[in-house]
Amino acid sequence: MADLNFDTKNEERPSVTPVDETETIEQMPENPIQVPEHNHGLSSEELNDANKIKVTIADYKTPLVILFGAPACGKTMTLIRLTRYLQSKGYTVQPETSFRPAYDKNYREMCENFDTMINSEDAAQSTDRISFMLVQVMRNGRPLCQILEGPGEYYFHPGAPQAPFPKYVNAIINSTNRKIWAIMIEPDKTNPRMDVEARRNYVNKIHKLKTKISPRDKVIFIFNKIDETNFVIGPGRINYPETMKRTKYLYPNIFNRFTNENPITRWFAPYNFDFVAFQTGDFSEAADGTLTFEEGHEVYPRKLWDVIMKHIRG
Ligand SMILES: Nc1nc2c(ncn2[C@@H]2O[C@H](COP(=O)(O)OP(=O)(O)OP(=O)(O)O)[C@@H](O)[C@H]2O)c(=O)[nH]1
Ligand SMILES: [Mg+2]
Predict the structure, then answer these.
(1) The whole model's pTM is what?
(2) Pairing of strands 4-6, 55-57
(3) Is 20 within the bounds of a domain?
(4) How far is the CA of 70 from the centre of ligand 2 (A)?
């Protein structure tokens, strides 16, 4: 049984597995597992075994942009910032309702309240509730790409760094969609779970991923939380050489598997990925303890979107 299900209209694809709609974690308060707030919506079976997680990518032709990164590196907020930017520029960004099974009430509510959530200033409202999200970006009714956001722990778990990817991640890796891997990194001291050892282990996980991704896929490294570094000269004006140097220091050997092997182009383009510095926004704690979000400068999502579009076009 594949965890990644495709459009049932296509006979050759595995179909969505029927599920017991009554089985929700809300109805199982006696569940002994400590469930992180943002995993609400997963069935008890999925919570007990990540290999049971079911996702469906109905559109297996439109390219997939996968936000890949450790817990709390900023995947959800990146999706939110990018969505806000795209909507302000006249793009349609809408969640794919079929992505999660019907028992995931949390997902259904996220789909119904997507615009409100995207525009909320309460950062926790969005990041705690959004666990899985697949959105479609359209321009003039034409789909351009789908952006996939998932819990970081299923890509890299600092407490279980050797854990293999759950089945659904492998299924996404092996899906027929053309893929753009947006691999996220961040400065040190911005994420308590990502200490020196965790960052080294994360590099290993990225290398593992590299062995699985298709040569026609593209890779973008997103250095998020750039506002927490000294490399910002002005909005969007980044000291890129220093940011790269810092990345190599914080994540030793991270780019080793991404060197450009082309004998001609490698002299002026040593790597085969794009590198984008990013800031989703400013986060401040309000008097009542809630974390408020103020979106960052537009230049960041604009540049990121430009790079994504470059890869979508070819
Ligand atoms: N300084 C700064 N902090 C950020 C930025 N983006 C995200 N953060 C912080 O990182 C936290 C986690 O962001 P999320 O978007 O929820 O992270 P995530 O990768 O979705 O995390 P998981 O869902 O647990 O995998 C936020 O609550 C912010 O505190 C940024 O651009 N700058
Ligand atoms: Mg998240």
Answers:
(1) 0.89
(2) parallel
(3) no
(4) 9
